[in-house]
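Entry:
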Amino acid sequence: MRILASSLLLTIVTSFSTVQAKPAPKNLNPNQKTFLAAEKAFADGDAATYQQLKESLSHYPLYPYLLYGELSKNLNPQNRISIDNFVKLYANSPLSDRLISSYINSLANKGHYDLMSEYFAEQFTESNNAKLKCLYIQHQLNNGAPLKQYVNDIGKLWNVPKSQAKECDGVFARWSNAGHLDHKIAYERYYQTAHEGAVGLLKYLSRFLHKDEQYITELWQKVKADPGVVAQRNFFPQKNPNLEAPVLVYAIKKLAWGDRDAAHRVWQKTQRAIPLAQGHKNEVERTMFLAQATENKKRALTWAKRHLNDMLEDELVNHWKLATFLRHNQWKRIQELYHILPNEQKETLQWRYWFAIALEKSGQAVEAMPLLQQIAKERDYYGYKAATRLKLPLQLNHQDAPISDEVFQQVSKSANIERARELYALERYINASREWREQLNRMDSPEQIMAAAKIANQWGWYNQAIITIAKAKHWDDTNIRFPTAFEEDYVAMAKKVDLPPQWLMGVTRQESAYGPFAVSGAGAYGLMQVLPSTAKIYSKKLGIGYQGRNDLFNPDTNIEMGSHYLKLRYQELDNNPIYASAAYNAGKHRIDKWKPFGRHPTDIWIEAIPYTETRDYIKKVMTYRMIYALKLGKKDDIFEYILNTQTGG
C-alpha cells in the first residue's frame, strides 16, 4: 500500500466542500460575497432575502448557478418549460447537461417514463447507465416497439462480467425468451466473468452453458481460490480442451507474479496436460517473461535471446528485453533488437539513447557520437543523460507560447472562462474545472488553448495551466509548464531538511502539477500529495502542527510534511536519491524488495524498476529536478550521480 500517492494522471481537483466544512475564502469582491449570501439565504429558506440578492446578481457570471440550484429542487414534469429554457439559454455551460441528467434520473425514479424516455432518447446510444437504458427499452417495448429493434443493445447490456441493475431483469427475460440468448453470447459472458468477475456470478452463468460444459465452473472456482491446484495430478479431466485451456492460462499467469521459480516448474509440468493453441502459449510466455525479468531471473535472459524477433509490437515486452540485456551487458543484442523494432518505438529518445550507448560499448564510439549529440539537445531524461555524458550544457529550451493579444482577450472574455474565474476564486474547484473543460472542448485552435493555459497560470491555477498547455502540444513554455510558485517556501524548507529545493519542486511538479488543492484517487492531498494517514503518524514524529486533512491544503504544512518525509526516506535508504524518490512513490517496503534483484549502474537500475509507474516517475522527477535547478540557477549533479554510481544489491 502506497504511503504517498502520485501520478498526475490520477490527480483530480476537488473543493474543500467535498472534504469538510470550511470558512468562506478571504479577499472576496462584493459580487462574490453577495453570491455566497444568496446561496445561504436559499439554503435557509429565506425566500425574500434570496430574491432580493438574486436580482442584484442578474449580470454576475455565476447567476446561472443560482437558477440551477432552484431548478434542481423542483425536478417534476410541471417544471419542464423552465428546465428546457435553462438548458437552451446556458447550453455552453456544464450545468445544462447536469440539469438534464438530474431531471432524467428524477423522472425515472418517480415513474414518469414517457417524459424520461423523451429526454433520454438523445442520450441512449452514448449512455453507460444500464438502469436508464433498460428502463428506456422496457418503456419502448411496452409501447409497441419491436424487440428486434433493441436486440443488439440488450445483448451488450447482458454481456458484462457483473450483475446488472434489477431494472434490467424484465428486458433480459423478454430477450432471452425470444431466443436471443444463444450459446456464443452466454460463453462470452461466462469467459469474461471467469477472468474479471465474482465467483457467485460465475455459478449463476453456468446454467447457460451446455450440460456437458458445466463441469468447468468447478475448475474455475478452485483455480480462483488457489491457482496452484492445476499442478495436481488429473486436475484437468480433459473433456473439452477449449474450455480447460483458459483455466490453465489464467492459473499460470496468476502464479507467475508470485513465486517465479515455482510458476516456471508448474508451467513445465502442466503445459502438456491439455492441448494449447499458440495464442495461449504466447500469452503465458509473455507473462512468464515479464515476471522473470522484473526480478532479474536467469531465465529472462535466455527467453529474451531466444525470442528476440517475437512480440515486437509489444512495447512492454521490448522494454524488458532491453532492461534484461542492459543488466547483462548484452550490447550487441541491444543493437540487433533496435534494428528490428517498429519505427514508432525506434524513434523514441529511450531507444535512440540506448542504441547509441550500445554502439559506444561495442567499440563504435564514432558512430555513437552524433546520435548522442542530437539527443543532448532535448529537455528530457535521456537528453540530460546524453548531455552529461558528453559534458555539454543541459538545455531548458524555453519558448513563450505564441499567443496574440486578440486571442488572449477573446478567450478571457468567454462565458465559461469568466464563470471558471469566479468559481476558482470561491474555491469551487470541481465546478471551475467543469466550466474549463467545457470551454476547451469548444476551442478549435492550439493558440486558443495556449491562451487558456496562460490565463490559468496567471490566476495561480498552475495544475490546470499545465494540463491545458499539454492539450495544445506546446512543450517549450517552461514558465507555464514548470511554475516556480512557492519558491521561497521550498528554498526555506530545503535548508531546514538539507535537501536541494529543486528536488522538492521536482517532486511537487510530478505529484500534483503544483495544485495546492489536488486530491489523488488514492486520497493524497495537496502540493506534495501527502496522505492524511501519513500526516497523522509523521506529524507527531516530526513535530509538525497538524489538526486534520484540510491542513494538507495549506502549502506551508504540505511542503513541510512532504519535505520531511522525503528526507526521512533518503536517510533510511542509504542517502540514495533514486531510492528515496522511488520510495516516495511506491513505498519503502518495495525498495527493500527490489534491492536483491542485483547491483547495477544506476541508470540501468532505473530502467529495470519493476513498476512501470515508478520507473516513469523516477525519470520525470529527476528531469524536473534538473529543470528547476536550471530555472533557479542552482548547480545540480544528479545526472552525474545517475551515470557514475551503482544502485541495488
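The first helix runs from residue 30 to 44.
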